[in-house]
Amino acid sequence: MANKYDWAKTFTVDFSMINGLSKTAEPTKRYLSKVAPMFCDQDAVADILKNGDLLVYEFYELDAPEAPGDIAFGTSITYPGRVGREFYMTKGHFHTILDTAEVYFCLSGEGGMIFENPEGDVRYEEFKPGIAVYVPQRYAHRSVNTGTEPLVTFFAFRGDAGHDYGTIETKGYRKLVVEKPGGGYELVGNPKWKAEI
Amino acid sequence: MANKYDWAKTFTVDFSMINGLSKTAEPTKRYLSKVAPMFCDQDAVADILKNGDLLVYEFYELDAPEAPGDIAFGTSITYPGRVGREFYMTKGHFHTILDTAEVYFCLSGEGGMIFENPEGDVRYEEFKPGIAVYVPQRYAHRSVNTGTEPLVTFFAFRGDAGHDYGTIETKGYRKLVVEKPGGGYELVGNPKWKAEI
């Protein structure tokens, strides 16, 4: 697809402050059937899919140049829901250039971001509207919707940072974000996490 | 001042979605008395200052590391008002590393951003809530409030980009954003612009 925007010139992109959707840009949609392996409870996945597929999250990639001087940006929308006890979430990724950071600014909804670095440091930060969450260099990051409305964030990172989804897809995250008995959320160990790949 | 945030770890910062202000971070405030030279009509400046000083804009610098792998971010709040026909605006700047971009996402208010590059290309993009404006590499950029409420934007750029305020302070912008007779705004030539410094 030809790049819709001329990144050497100024341009604007519209995103709804309520649901994060753009009237002019094309989202990338992630349905449960395609991201099923990232959830721990595969019986719960199968139960849901019996009744049809569901949209777990979507986001905007605007084809920013893969250049260190450009800034990629867009919105990410993670829908509310659970697969078993596990909340809906994004696949999550490291940056291919590991030592590049990112920032997410929450516009709507509630949830959090779970992080881990290659050394195994796991962190979690909560999102609510008006909260900026800093993704430091070297941390894989995944958005999690622990609420009842779409979790909408605006993100920005260096154009050449790149996305490494594979490491997370293969190893999984060390921790899961699940519904806490009685309400709220909690982090629990991921029984399927693999130390080595 | 010691850096309040550990940029090697995750952290959050709060910004109001309405007025852009943070309850926890310290803003940099720009009063009319200090930014007076950027306005064209110095008689109008003097008239206003007779009745006391006014806050033209404020923004958050969070002391991001000056590193190519980090992302600086914060909010910018330009208040509504005029000096003569000219709307309240920020000083505007080039990045010290000229070939680094930036993105601004409008949270509240209305106005625009005026741009120019060293070759003299002048551009203008409008802000309203939900509009992301891309600042390409090599373009000086200044926020202008053409409305009646605070213009609030969330911005993100590379940590090492740096701010070159001096070039704009000395030369001025090629164009001014002024009230249009009958309402609205228009761009007019800056009679004080200097081709060479």
Question: Helix fraction of chain A?
Answer: under 10%
**What kind of sheet is the major sheet of chain A?**
6 strands, antiparallel
**Average of the residue pLDDT scores of chain A:** 95
- State the end-to-end distance of chain A: 34 Å
Radius of gyration of chain A, whole Å: 16 Å
Strand order of the largest sheet of chain A: 2-3-4-13-8-11
Largest interface, with counts of residues having CB < 8 Å to the other chain, equals: A-B, 45 and 45 residues
Would you list the SSEs of chain A in sequence order as H and E? Answer: EEHHEEEEEEEEEEEEHEE
Q: Uncertain runs of chain A with pLDDT below 50, 5 residues or more?
A: none
Shape of chain A: globular
By oligomeric state, this entry counts as: homodimer
What structural class should be given to the helix and strand makeup of chain A? mainly beta
Question: What is the count of β-strands of chain A?
Answer: 16
Number of helices of chain A: 3
Query: How much β-strand is present in the residues of chain A?
Result: 35-45%
